[in-house]
């Protein structure tokens, strides 16, 4: 096991070598560091290259899960075109820190949509659901049957509602989830647990 020094903004990296691991390399965040899992047989040069590759991959994944305000606006525009026939055009879409009891909000008068930063890191389809929900308020203000018909045009609406209800219930019970182990071994274990 080795740990890279922390030069400036570079993350702390812990490399874990495994004799059982033959070809695959995986990486995930654990507390304040990045853990990179590699086969024990790799050279230090291969290790260094794989650490660089996996850090870049993690960064790309995190950017997709945590889009900027401009990225949110682009997503909202695409979702509006795809599911709402272009009828719901917001003037602003942005992340906010002051929403602790709701996932998003919309002010139809100024066509502003705000999403809670608590959504960052959740699956993209959940964020998209919240965006569609708020976009629908630009067409139908209340939670009427017409409003829900608009929201339910999003194919993963029911799944996202269930996901968010589960997150809310877990937080009320004080249950916290660890970041999933997205390595091949972690995925295999999750599949085995589901069987």
Q: Can you give keywords for this protein?
A:
195 residues, alpha/beta, four-stranded mixed sheet, three-stranded mixed sheet, 6 helices
Structural commentary:
- This protein is an alpha/beta fold.
- 44% of the residues lie in helices and 18% in strands.
- The chain contains six helices and seven strands, in the order E-E-E-E-H-H-E-E-E-H-H-H-H.
- The strands form two sheets. The protein has a four-stranded mixed beta sheet with strand order 1-2-4-3, with helices on one face. The chain has a three-stranded mixed beta sheet with strand order 5-7-6.
Question: What is the topology?
Answer:
Elements: E1 2-3, E2 12-18, E3 26-30, E4 33-39, H1 44-65, H2 69-83, E5 92-96, E6 104-107, E7 112-116, H3 124-137, H4 145-151, H5 157-173, H6 184-194
Parallel strand pairs: 2-4, 5-7
Antiparallel strand pairs: 1-2, 3-4, 6-7
Helix pairs in contact: 2-3, 3-4, 3-5
């Amino acid at each position: 096991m080795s740990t890279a020094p922390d030069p400036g903004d570079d993350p702390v990296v812990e490399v874990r070598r495994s004799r059982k691991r033959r070809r695959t390399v995986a990486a995930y965040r654990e507390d304040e560091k990045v853990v990179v899992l590699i086969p024990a047989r790799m050279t230090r040069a291969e290790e260094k290259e794989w650490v660089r590759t996996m850090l870049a991959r993690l960064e790309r994944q995190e950017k997709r899960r945590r889009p900027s305000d401009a990225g949110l606006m682009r997503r909202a525009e695409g979702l509006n075109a795809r599911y709402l026939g272009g009828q719901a055009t917001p003037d602003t879409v942005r992340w906010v820190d002051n929403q602790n009891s709701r996932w998003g909000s919309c002010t139809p008068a100024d066509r502003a949509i705000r999403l809670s930063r608590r959504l960052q890191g959740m699956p993209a389809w959940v964020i998209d659901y919240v965006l569609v929900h708020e976009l629908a308020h630009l067409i139908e203000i209340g939670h009427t049957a017409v409003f829900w018909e608009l929201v339910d045009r999003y194919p993963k609406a029911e799944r996202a509602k269930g996901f968010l209800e589960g997150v809310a219930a877990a937080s009320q019970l004080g249950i916290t989830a660890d970041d999933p182990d997205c390595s091949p071994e972690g995925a295999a274990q999750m599949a085995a647990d589901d069987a």
